């Protein structure tokens, strides 16, 4: 697999940002009614599709993987433009950026990155993070989700809540500790999982997700496609 993502060259960032602002205004004021939208949770799927068709999330992706380079000042300018029209949209950008793409760019195995970044740029995919558990919010180090080690993958089981982009994310970073066989402390590990392999049961009333089984790979492994 090539370690680079081939894409058309990006227009200069100021031009992209200007066009993106106009696109948002068109979507929020002409294609939809912003007063109606702001009374409802989330965004209609057609709007998210149109927004992602402009490849805004490429702003947060390293240039060697087909993105705009992940420059902080550009990321902040993009997030500010989004928040001017929609705080939920801006929160979604922030989650993709800081809770998924940045950790993947920094810590994931180099062989796993092209597939994921390519998915974001070409297939408009998104990613989120599941750390928090209902009984261990601020006290995240006491989390109880655990993983079992199989020959070429891992299984995670546990309960998570507050995971932003639930229902939208295609990839997840998940944290868990090795299933305890003794009372000894086990360090927390971070795993990557594709939504397609995640079996979850959600409780909307209690806003948590019980992860029945998730087939995962550690950040430094190469199994995820
Ligand atoms: C909008 C939003 C998006 C989020 N997105 C994600 C996400 O994508 N993925 C994810 O994993 N998590 C996410 N979270 C969860 C977030 O990280 C947790 O809300 C946070 O860790 C706090 O946990 P808690 O809400 O259970 O509060 P608690 O831990 O129950 O804390 C409640 C209150 O008690 C205080 N408190 C707690 N412990 C102490 C202490 N020892 N001393 C003094 N005061 C204390 C806290 O400061 C707080 O005021 C999100 C939360 C929000 C609000």
Structural features:
Butyryl-CoA Dehydrogenase, subunit A, domain 2; 34% helix; Butyryl-Coa Dehydrogenase, subunit A, domain 1; alpha+beta; 225 residues; binds flavin-adenine dinucleotide; 7 strands; globular; 6 helices
User: What's the mean pLDDT score?
Assistant: 83
Using only CA atoms, what is the Rg? Answer: 18 Å
Structural class: alpha+beta
Q: What's the tally of helices? A: 6
Number of domains: 2
Proportion in β-strands: 15-25%
**CATH class of the largest domain, anyone?**
Mainly Alpha
What is the H-and-E element order? HHHHHHEEEEEEE
Let me know the number of strands.
7
How many strands, which pairing sense, and closed or not: the largest β-sheet? 5 strands, mixed, barrel
The stretches of 5 or more residues where confidence is low (pLDDT under 50) are none
The distinct ligands, each listed once, are: flavin-adenine dinucleotide
Question: Judging by the overall fold, what is the CATH architecture of the largest domain?
Answer: Orthogonal Bundle
Cα shape = globular
Strand order of the largest sheet: 2-3-7-5-4
Distance between termini? Answer: 11 Å
CATH topology (level 3) name of the largest domain:
Butyryl-Coa Dehydrogenase, subunit A, domain 1
> What percent of the residues sit in helical stretches (DSSP H or I)?
25-40%
């Amino acid at each position: 697999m090539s370690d680079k993502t081939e894409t058309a060259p990006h227009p200069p960032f100021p031009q992209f940002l200007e066009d993106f602002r106009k696109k948002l205004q068109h979507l929020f004021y002409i294609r939809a009614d912003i007063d109606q939208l702001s009374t409802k949770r989330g965004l209609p799927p057609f709007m998210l599709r149109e927004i992602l068709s402009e490849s805004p999330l490429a702003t947060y992706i390293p240039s060697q993987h087909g993105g705009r380079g992940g420059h902080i000042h550009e990321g902040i300018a993009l997030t500010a433009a989004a928040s001017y029209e929609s705080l939920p949209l801006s929160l979604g950008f922030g989650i993709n950026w800081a809770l998924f793409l940045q950790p993947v760019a920094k810590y994931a195995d180099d062989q796993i990155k092209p597939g994921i970044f390519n998915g974001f740029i070409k297939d408009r995919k998104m990613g989120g993070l599941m750390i928090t558990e209902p009984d261990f919010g601020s006290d995240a180090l006491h989390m109880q989700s655990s993983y079992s080690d199989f020959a070429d993958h891992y299984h995670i089981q546990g309960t998570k809540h507050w995971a932003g982009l639930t229902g939208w994310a295609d990839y997840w970073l998940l944290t868990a500790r090795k299933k305890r066989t003794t009372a000894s402390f086990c360090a927390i590990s971070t795993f990557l999982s594709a939504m397609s392999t995640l079996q979850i049961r959600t409780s909307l009333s209690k806003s948590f997700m019980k992860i029945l089984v998730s087939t995962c790979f550690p950040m430094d492994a190469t199994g995820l496609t």
